[in-house]
Predict the structure.
Amino acid sequence: MRLILLGPPGAGKGTQAKMLAEKFGIPQISTGDILRKAVSNDTELGKQARAAMDDGQLVPDEIVIGLIKEKIREGDCSRGFILDGFPRTIVQAEKLSETLEEMNLSIDTVIDFEVNPQELLERLTGRRSCSNCGAMFHDETRQPKKAGICDDCGHELYQRPDDNRETIIKRLDVYEKETAPLKEFYRKRGNLKSIEGRGSVEEIFSQVCSLVS
Ligand code: AP5
Protein backbone atom coordinates (compact mmCIF):
# COMPACT_ATOMS: atom_id res chain seq x y z
CA MET A 1 0.00 0.00 0.00
CA ARG A 2 1.49 3.34 -1.07
CA LEU A 3 -0.35 6.40 0.21
CA ILE A 4 0.04 10.16 0.17
CA LEU A 5 -1.62 12.23 2.92
CA LEU A 6 -2.34 15.69 1.62
CA GLY A 7 -3.77 18.63 3.55
CA PRO A 8 -2.92 21.95 5.15
CA PRO A 9 -0.83 22.32 8.31
CA GLY A 10 -2.82 20.91 11.24
CA ALA A 11 -5.20 18.86 9.08
CA GLY A 12 -4.23 15.71 10.97
CA LYS A 13 -1.82 14.11 8.47
CA GLY A 14 0.73 13.15 11.12
CA THR A 15 -1.90 11.84 13.54
CA GLN A 16 -3.55 9.65 10.89
CA ALA A 17 -0.21 8.56 9.35
CA LYS A 18 0.99 7.16 12.70
CA MET A 19 -2.26 5.20 13.15
CA LEU A 20 -2.15 3.86 9.58
CA ALA A 21 1.52 2.87 9.98
CA GLU A 22 0.65 0.87 13.08
CA LYS A 23 -2.44 -0.79 11.60
CA PHE A 24 -0.89 -1.75 8.27
CA GLY A 25 2.73 -2.29 9.39
CA ILE A 26 4.23 0.09 6.84
CA PRO A 27 6.43 3.12 7.56
CA GLN A 28 5.28 6.73 7.85
CA ILE A 29 7.66 8.99 5.95
CA SER A 30 7.29 12.54 7.24
CA THR A 31 9.58 15.08 5.61
CA GLY A 32 8.74 17.49 8.45
CA ASP A 33 9.93 14.97 11.09
CA ILE A 34 13.10 14.16 9.12
CA LEU A 35 13.90 17.86 8.73
CA ARG A 36 13.15 18.68 12.40
CA LYS A 37 15.47 15.88 13.51
CA ALA A 38 18.21 17.26 11.25
CA VAL A 39 17.66 20.76 12.70
CA SER A 40 17.79 19.47 16.26
CA ASN A 41 21.01 17.51 15.53
CA ASP A 42 22.44 20.56 13.73
CA THR A 43 23.48 18.48 10.72
CA GLU A 44 24.33 20.01 7.33
CA LEU A 45 20.74 19.27 6.20
CA GLY A 46 19.41 20.92 9.36
CA LYS A 47 21.48 24.04 8.76
CA GLN A 48 20.06 24.29 5.23
CA ALA A 49 16.46 23.76 6.37
CA ARG A 50 16.20 25.73 9.63
CA ALA A 51 15.60 29.26 8.33
CA ALA A 52 12.85 28.24 5.89
CA MET A 53 11.09 26.09 8.50
CA ASP A 54 11.19 28.74 11.21
CA ASP A 55 9.75 31.25 8.74
CA GLY A 56 6.93 28.94 7.62
CA GLN A 57 8.33 28.61 4.09
CA LEU A 58 9.10 25.44 2.15
CA VAL A 59 12.57 23.94 2.15
CA PRO A 60 13.97 23.89 -1.43
CA ASP A 61 12.61 21.09 -3.64
CA GLU A 62 16.01 19.56 -4.43
CA ILE A 63 16.72 18.96 -0.73
CA VAL A 64 13.46 17.16 0.06
CA ILE A 65 13.38 15.24 -3.22
CA GLY A 66 16.84 13.82 -2.43
CA LEU A 67 15.63 12.78 1.02
CA ILE A 68 12.55 10.99 -0.28
CA LYS A 69 14.37 9.15 -3.06
CA GLU A 70 16.75 7.74 -0.47
CA LYS A 71 13.93 6.78 1.92
CA ILE A 72 11.65 4.96 -0.50
CA ARG A 73 14.54 2.83 -1.72
CA GLU A 74 15.12 1.55 1.83
CA GLY A 75 14.14 -2.05 2.63
CA ASP A 76 11.36 -1.25 5.07
CA CYS A 77 9.41 0.48 2.26
CA SER A 78 9.22 -2.69 0.17
CA ARG A 79 5.66 -3.43 1.43
CA GLY A 80 4.55 0.17 1.02
CA PHE A 81 4.71 3.53 2.79
CA ILE A 82 2.70 6.53 3.90
CA LEU A 83 4.00 9.89 2.70
CA ASP A 84 3.12 12.61 5.22
CA GLY A 85 3.96 16.15 4.06
CA PHE A 86 5.46 15.14 0.72
CA PRO A 87 4.96 16.06 -2.07
CA ARG A 88 4.24 19.74 -1.42
CA THR A 89 4.87 21.25 -4.85
CA ILE A 90 4.14 20.17 -8.43
CA VAL A 91 7.89 19.69 -9.00
CA GLN A 92 8.07 17.33 -6.00
CA ALA A 93 5.03 15.39 -7.27
CA GLU A 94 6.54 15.00 -10.74
CA LYS A 95 9.88 13.82 -9.34
CA LEU A 96 8.08 11.35 -7.08
CA SER A 97 6.20 9.88 -10.07
CA GLU A 98 9.46 9.56 -12.02
CA THR A 99 11.23 7.84 -9.14
CA LEU A 100 8.37 5.39 -8.60
CA GLU A 101 8.13 4.65 -12.33
CA GLU A 102 11.84 3.78 -12.35
CA MET A 103 11.03 1.26 -9.61
CA ASN A 104 7.90 -0.01 -11.44
CA LEU A 105 5.73 1.29 -8.60
CA SER A 106 2.92 3.82 -8.28
CA ILE A 107 0.85 5.61 -5.66
CA ASP A 108 -2.43 3.83 -4.82
CA THR A 109 -4.35 6.60 -3.06
CA VAL A 110 -3.94 10.28 -2.21
CA ILE A 111 -6.07 11.26 0.78
CA ASP A 112 -6.85 14.95 0.99
CA PHE A 113 -7.98 16.25 4.40
CA GLU A 114 -10.21 19.34 4.24
CA VAL A 115 -10.35 21.45 7.43
CA ASN A 116 -11.32 25.12 7.75
CA PRO A 117 -8.56 27.67 8.58
CA GLN A 118 -10.00 28.72 11.97
CA GLU A 119 -9.96 25.13 13.23
CA LEU A 120 -6.41 24.66 11.87
CA LEU A 121 -5.25 27.72 13.77
CA GLU A 122 -6.81 26.43 17.02
CA ARG A 123 -5.32 22.97 16.58
CA LEU A 124 -1.80 24.25 15.88
CA THR A 125 -1.56 27.00 18.49
CA GLY A 126 -2.54 24.40 21.14
CA ARG A 127 -0.43 21.50 19.85
CA ARG A 128 2.23 20.00 22.11
CA SER A 129 4.56 17.34 20.68
CA CYS A 130 6.73 14.77 22.43
CA SER A 131 10.42 15.49 22.02
CA ASN A 132 11.18 11.77 22.06
CA CYS A 133 8.46 9.69 20.37
CA GLY A 134 6.59 12.38 18.39
CA ALA A 135 3.20 11.69 20.05
CA MET A 136 0.88 14.68 19.81
CA PHE A 137 -1.27 16.38 22.42
CA HIS A 138 -3.32 19.52 22.61
CA ASP A 139 -3.73 22.09 25.39
CA GLU A 140 -7.51 21.79 25.31
CA THR A 141 -8.67 18.86 23.23
CA ARG A 142 -6.07 16.18 24.06
CA GLN A 143 -4.36 16.94 27.33
CA PRO A 144 -1.70 14.57 28.65
CA LYS A 145 -2.44 12.89 31.99
CA LYS A 146 0.46 14.80 33.56
CA ALA A 147 0.99 18.39 32.33
CA GLY A 148 3.95 18.74 29.96
CA ILE A 149 4.75 15.00 29.96
CA CYS A 150 4.10 12.45 27.19
CA ASP A 151 1.60 9.74 28.17
CA ASP A 152 3.31 7.24 25.88
CA CYS A 153 7.00 7.51 26.81
CA GLY A 154 7.28 9.94 29.75
CA HIS A 155 9.47 12.49 27.93
CA GLU A 156 8.85 16.24 27.92
CA LEU A 157 6.38 17.86 25.55
CA TYR A 158 7.40 20.94 23.58
CA GLN A 159 5.79 23.49 21.29
CA ARG A 160 7.14 23.53 17.73
CA PRO A 161 8.80 26.86 16.89
CA ASP A 162 6.59 27.17 13.79
CA ASP A 163 3.38 26.69 15.83
CA ASN A 164 2.88 30.38 16.60
CA ARG A 165 0.01 32.38 15.11
CA GLU A 166 2.12 34.50 12.73
CA THR A 167 4.04 31.55 11.28
CA ILE A 168 0.91 29.36 11.07
CA ILE A 169 -0.78 32.03 8.93
CA LYS A 170 2.26 32.05 6.61
CA ARG A 171 2.24 28.23 6.43
CA LEU A 172 -1.46 28.24 5.49
CA ASP A 173 -0.76 30.79 2.79
CA VAL A 174 2.17 28.75 1.42
CA TYR A 175 -0.10 25.70 1.41
CA GLU A 176 -2.74 27.45 -0.70
CA LYS A 177 -0.20 28.74 -3.21
CA GLU A 178 2.24 25.83 -3.49
CA THR A 179 0.53 22.65 -2.31
CA ALA A 180 -3.23 22.96 -2.92
CA PRO A 181 -2.66 22.70 -6.73
CA LEU A 182 -1.62 19.08 -6.09
CA LYS A 183 -5.30 18.23 -5.60
CA GLU A 184 -5.92 18.91 -9.28
CA PHE A 185 -2.69 17.10 -10.21
CA TYR A 186 -3.84 13.89 -8.49
CA ARG A 187 -7.53 14.31 -9.39
CA LYS A 188 -6.52 14.18 -13.06
CA ARG A 189 -4.62 10.97 -12.34
CA GLY A 190 -7.72 9.46 -10.73
CA ASN A 191 -6.36 8.68 -7.29
CA LEU A 192 -7.47 11.65 -5.17
CA LYS A 193 -9.96 11.00 -2.35
CA SER A 194 -11.05 13.98 -0.26
CA ILE A 195 -12.50 13.72 3.22
CA GLU A 196 -13.83 16.23 5.71
CA GLY A 197 -11.06 16.35 8.34
CA ARG A 198 -13.37 17.48 11.16
CA GLY A 199 -14.65 15.01 13.73
CA SER A 200 -12.85 12.85 16.26
CA VAL A 201 -9.48 11.34 15.40
CA GLU A 202 -11.08 7.88 15.58
CA GLU A 203 -13.99 8.83 13.27
CA ILE A 204 -11.57 10.18 10.71
CA PHE A 205 -9.36 7.12 11.01
CA SER A 206 -12.31 4.87 10.29
CA GLN A 207 -13.14 6.91 7.14
CA VAL A 208 -9.50 6.76 6.03
CA CYS A 209 -9.37 2.99 6.54
CA SER A 210 -12.52 2.51 4.48
CA LEU A 211 -10.89 4.47 1.63
CA VAL A 212 -7.69 2.44 1.58
CA SER A 213 -8.79 -1.10 2.48
P1 AP5 B 1 5.36 19.39 8.56
O1 AP5 B 1 5.98 18.83 9.78
O2 AP5 B 1 4.99 18.47 7.47
O3 AP5 B 1 4.15 20.28 9.05
P2 AP5 B 1 2.73 20.62 8.36
O4 AP5 B 1 2.45 20.14 7.01
O5 AP5 B 1 2.66 22.09 8.55
O6 AP5 B 1 1.75 19.78 9.15
P3 AP5 B 1 1.63 19.64 10.66
O7 AP5 B 1 2.60 18.63 11.17
O8 AP5 B 1 1.68 20.99 11.32
O9 AP5 B 1 0.13 19.14 10.79
P4 AP5 B 1 -0.53 17.73 10.50
O10 AP5 B 1 -1.44 17.81 9.33
O11 AP5 B 1 0.48 16.62 10.52
O12 AP5 B 1 -1.47 17.64 11.78
P5 AP5 B 1 -1.27 16.84 13.14
O13 AP5 B 1 -1.66 15.42 12.95
O14 AP5 B 1 0.07 17.13 13.72
O15 AP5 B 1 6.32 20.51 7.92
C1 AP5 B 1 6.96 21.48 8.72
C2 AP5 B 1 7.88 22.33 7.84
O16 AP5 B 1 8.91 21.50 7.26
C3 AP5 B 1 7.22 23.01 6.63
O17 AP5 B 1 6.61 24.24 6.98
C4 AP5 B 1 8.42 23.17 5.68
O18 AP5 B 1 9.25 24.27 6.07
C5 AP5 B 1 9.21 21.89 5.92
N1 AP5 B 1 8.81 20.81 4.99
C6 AP5 B 1 8.24 19.62 5.33
N2 AP5 B 1 8.00 18.88 4.24
C7 AP5 B 1 8.42 19.63 3.18
C8 AP5 B 1 8.41 19.40 1.78
N3 AP5 B 1 7.91 18.26 1.24
N4 AP5 B 1 8.91 20.38 0.98
C9 AP5 B 1 9.43 21.52 1.49
N5 AP5 B 1 9.45 21.79 2.81
C10 AP5 B 1 8.95 20.84 3.66
O19 AP5 B 1 -2.39 17.53 14.05
C11 AP5 B 1 -2.29 18.87 14.46
C12 AP5 B 1 -2.94 19.07 15.83
O20 AP5 B 1 -4.33 18.80 15.70
C13 AP5 B 1 -2.44 18.10 16.93
O21 AP5 B 1 -2.42 18.77 18.16
C14 AP5 B 1 -3.46 16.98 16.93
O22 AP5 B 1 -3.55 16.36 18.18
C15 AP5 B 1 -4.73 17.73 16.55
N6 AP5 B 1 -5.67 16.92 15.79
C16 AP5 B 1 -5.39 15.99 14.82
N7 AP5 B 1 -6.53 15.46 14.34
C17 AP5 B 1 -7.55 16.09 15.00
C18 AP5 B 1 -8.96 15.98 14.94
N8 AP5 B 1 -9.56 15.12 14.13
N9 AP5 B 1 -9.69 16.78 15.75
C19 AP5 B 1 -9.09 17.64 16.62
N10 AP5 B 1 -7.75 17.78 16.72
C20 AP5 B 1 -7.00 17.01 15.91
About this structure: The chain has a mean pLDDT of 94. The CA atoms of residues 178 and 184 lie 12 Å apart. The longest strand covers residues 109-114. The beta strands are 2-6, 28-30, 81-84, 109-114, 127-130, 136-138, 157-158, 192-196.
